[in-house]
From TrEMBL:
Its cofactor is Mg(2+). This is NUDIX hydrolase. One of its GO terms (molecular function) is hydrolase activity. InterPro entries: NUDIX_hydrolase-like_dom_sf, NUDIX_hydrolase_dom.
Length: 180
């Protein structure tokens, strides 16, 4: 364990805070830790009754490329219920709702420099109602409906590189396989 001596805010943005802590290590060495505070998020693996998966494609500015991902989004307020956030994000990003959600656990995305946690859900019994996609104004999304097994292969062979998508799809794959 490391004991925090001081904490200072380096940056306080709309989404993230960057902190710098002075800490004492177990061996007595004093050092610094810089890290990003993130509000937390959810990601949803939407699987249709006929074995398809709904993905979204969007441009990710930090890496300057388009990525194929499962629908996801951050909590809007502290203490937000992850399931409610998952329902909102699925509908906003795809226009779909689900009658059934299964919690697939959570992941720490980059624990070397961030406290971000993403809760993962499998969504089934999907339906499209009279509602439509309503992404955030700074999101431009394209919805794709793909074969689930082919998407698993894309995760394995490196065509899909987004970690939340890979972990979510693999957990959903083994969950569904265990039900057969």
């Amino acid at each position: 364990m490391e004991k925090t001596i001081t904490t200072s805010v380096i940056f306080n943005g709309m989404l993230l805070r960057v902190l710098k802590d002075e800490v004492v290590l177990e061996n007595g060495v004093v050092t610094t830790r810089e890290y990003v505070q993130h509000p937390g998020a959810v990601a949803v693996v939407p699987v249709t009754d006929d074995g398809k998966i709904i993905l979204v494609e969007q441009y990710r500015y930090p890496i300057k490329q388009m990525l194929l991902e499962i629908p996801a989004g951050k909590f809007d307020k502290p203490g937000e219920n992850p399931l409610e956030c998952a329902k909102r994000e699925l509908e906003e990003e795809t226009g779909y709702r689900a009658q059934e959600y299964t919690y697939l656990g959570y992941i720490h995305t980059t624990p070397g420099f961030s406290n971000e946690v993403i809760h993962l859900y499998l969504a089934r019994k999907l339906y499209k109602g009279t509602f439509t996609m309503d992404p955030d104004e700074d999101e431009i999304l394209k919805v794709h409906i793909k074969d689930f097994d082919e998407t698993v292969q894309k995760c394995i062979n490196g065509e899909i590189t987004d970690v939340k998508t890979i972990v979510g799809i693999m957990r959903a794959y083994f969950k569904l396989r265990g039900e057969k």
